[in-house]
């Protein structure tokens, strides 16, 4: 049974809207747990530059601005402002409580950590997936199969509780 939520408090200089402290401290959409990259608009780059932060057109995940919490929350990109994962949406609508939201986040983080032990880095995970797809059934090693099963379990959990991309949402500008 998971213990109390492991999420740090939000930065002191950020407005505290209901449930957003959990959002700002989760980081799954910032650390490649959900999205592989974030496209920035010209307005995003200008806003970040106005805050003294140089920004490229695309930020590869994990986001360099994520350090246990968002370090540019006040000037974060529009896609970050727009995105609401399924868990945060359910919490905001009162469908789940903070304890359930924290449990989902803790479970996702634990699944990701377990996966990272076998496949450190997003590139290794994508490479495994591509090798698995390309290999003939007899060539798929048991170890790779176990790692692939963990990757699939993680992705299914993320899709169920956090990710809207399967329904057309992404972190790219519209």
Automatic annotation (TrEMBL):
<protein>
    <submittedName>
        <fullName>YkgJ family cysteine cluster protein</fullName>
    </submittedName>
</protein>
<dbReference type="InterPro" id="IPR005358">
    <property type="entry name" value="Puta_zinc/iron-chelating_dom"/>
</dbReference>
<dbReference type="Pfam" id="PF03692">
    <property type="entry name" value="CxxCxxCC"/>
</dbReference>
């Amino acid at each position: 049974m998971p213990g109390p939520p492991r999420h740090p408090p939000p930065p002191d200089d950020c407005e505290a809207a209901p449930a957003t402290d959990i959002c700002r401290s989760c980081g799954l959409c910032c650390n490649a747990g959900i999205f592989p990259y974030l496209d920035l608009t010209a307005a995003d780059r200008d806003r970040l530059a106005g805050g003294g932060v140089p920004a490229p057109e695309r930020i590869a995940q994990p986001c360099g601005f994520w350090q246990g919490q968002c370090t540019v929350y006040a000037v974060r990109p529009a896609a970050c402002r727009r995105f609401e994962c399924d868990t945060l949406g359910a919490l905001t609508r009162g469908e789940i409580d903070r304890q359930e939201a924290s449990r989902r986040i803790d479970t996702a983080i634990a699944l990701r950590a377990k996966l990272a032990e076998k496949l450190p880095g997003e590139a290794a995970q994508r490479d495994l997936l591509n090798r698995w797809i390309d290999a003939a059934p007899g060539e798929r090693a048991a170890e790779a199969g176990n790692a692939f099963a963990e990757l699939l379990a993680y992705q299914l959990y993320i899709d169920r509780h956090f990710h809207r991309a399967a329904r057309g949402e992404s972190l790219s500008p519209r």
